[in-house]
Amino acid sequence: MMKRLLCALLALMLLTPAALCESTFAPLPFGPEDVQAAFNVPEQTVADFSASYAPESYGWWHEADGTVIVLYCAGGLLQIKTADASALLDPLKGLTGASDLPDEVLSLEAAPSAVYWDAPGFPLPTVRGVQIGDARETLFSLFPQADAVCQPVLEDEGSAFEETVSFSYDAVSDGGVPQRYTLTFYIELDAVAAMRLVCERADDAAQG
What we know:
alpha+beta, eight-stranded antiparallel β-sheet, 32% strand
């Protein structure tokens, strides 16, 4: 036993400081585990999400493969995807927000497709524990800086944010559809002011 312990200590001594630091502290890339941690929720229907997140209002729009319903909540918003509900929801009403939804829509199965955090207290846990107000440099201790896409926000875009820092990865859905998951941090005064996690079709993400 003592001999094995001495061998292990000797092996550690032979590691260079850089190698030891890299093996111990190098952050992992943004990936499926991060999305699973955020989107693996117990809610299964629109009614479940409504009960858990107590939205102040709703919005929605219809896509070729279903309907996106937006729950506007204190601290952020949550987008969930359902089956096609175009016969049940007026697209023009959805754009302006609504105080309630028809029972036929509440009973539909749903799953998260995007979340936006803009204040403390939003019920859905943030990715890797990043919080509103954390320093910009904190991101690069939690995610590889080489993977980050950093873009300044132009003044004429009318945004209060100064920069976005994004991390992405591509995957394929169970139905064989190429998808892109993107995690974006909105920076103001060198601190995280908001966060967004979204799943999009890969071709839509490329156009955006």
